[in-house]
Amino acid sequence: MFRSVAYLFTISVFSLLPLSGCESSRSERDSLFTEAIAPVTDGDRIEASKQRLEHFILHSYSRRLFPSFAVGVFDRRGFLYTYYINADANKSYSTGSVTKLLTATLFQMQLERKRLQPHEAIDRHFPEFQELRWNNEPVTLQNLITHTGGFPDLRFYKKPDFRKMESIDLKVPMPIYPPGRHYRYSNHGYIMLGHILEKTCGDSIENCMKREIFDPLGMTESKGPKTGAGGFVTTLHDLMLFGRLYLNGGTVDGKRLLSKASIEQMVHPGFHIPKSDHNYFTGRGWRVKTDEKGVVTMFHIGGANYTSAWLQLFPRYGVGICYLGNPPEYSDPLMNYLSGVQYLLGDVAGAYANSPQPVYAWKADPTKPELSAQFPGVYIDPQTSETLVVYTEQRAETQHIMVRGSWAYEVFPETHHVFNGGRDFLTHQFVVDPATGKVVALANGFGYYEKQATGENNVSKAD
């Protein structure tokens, strides 16, 4: 699961970063590839934003959070800005889970060539994968690519039931959610997808990436990956080349590698989201934020000890940002720093695009009363029989959503149907049936809890 680190960013520079969502007088949705109008550049704004960013990076470097760091801003035509600490354009870095963007790109290429179909069962490629079905419901390729295969996130879930997949020499945790209902980050899902891509392409995933992506884009300093989930090693220069592929609608030097339709498919959610103007979800590889006009931003992060990587696009303005680093420890202070870099780099990109508001400006919609009224109830995990009770508490004029299992805790809105709270402050998604519009389940990092008809929504703290 991707967890935003923005909430950690409490340094004084935060006051420079307005986060309110932008208003729109247009009801139609923009194309993802609307050609950005060439901005009238404001040199003072550009210089001021660069100075804030560089001061922030230098201050953090003095705290020894990282031995080297590289940041970049680019647009559809080329590279706009780079800045390095103990690095240069050719220094290589591990990217961790940013690898998944390459895997998703290669996957989309196979769809275009009709070698794969998104909704085909994964056990069509490896019959052994039938063991991974949920109540005989198959996991599909679409489930793997959107992290909706039902597999637990093993960073937090500590009771997995592993099954050894001999055909790929991998122990895979059994699903704890039905496929296609809930997003939960899964490295295992992308590793399996990598094996399917190798079988489809007839070569190692490393060679497939080189032939299909690195060579056409001129990413001469990139290597790997070893699996579909990680192992991509690259430079700032090459990472920006990859980002520009998407800003340019799938073309490079006049040659098309991906169709615009393919990229549009990649920025749609992997499960049903209740109707809302502002949404935040995972598509095929990309994490995506949208508003009533379309895609606001699309991005991915990679983070671990000795790895920090980020690639983010703002298609509406035709600009993108990225960073690469090698921190010895992926700690809370480092995440705090990286969150600041994301915002400040966004400000540099916005200055080059001369955007009227921050390019990252986005705000979740509040939950509609007709939806929140359905949240209270008794929820039971059919696999473990564990029970959660959801109820509301009135404090002053505000209603707070509470969850009680072995202990009671409050959950806080991330979007209109996803809330954060409890152990490890993980997401809690209220699952809505697309046919009826009714809340049918609650999914968190530890299970899938089906809503019980008994008692309906009349649940109190004492129940």
UniProtKB/TrEMBL annotation:
Protein known as: Serine hydrolase
InterPro entries the record matches: Beta-lactam-related, Beta-lactam/transpept-like, Diverse_Enzym_Activities
Domain Beta-lactamase-related: 66-326
UniProt KW Cell membrane keyword: no
Species assigned in the record: Leptonema illini
Signal peptide: none
GO MF term set: hydrolase activity
Superkingdom: Bacteria
Keywords: Hydrolase
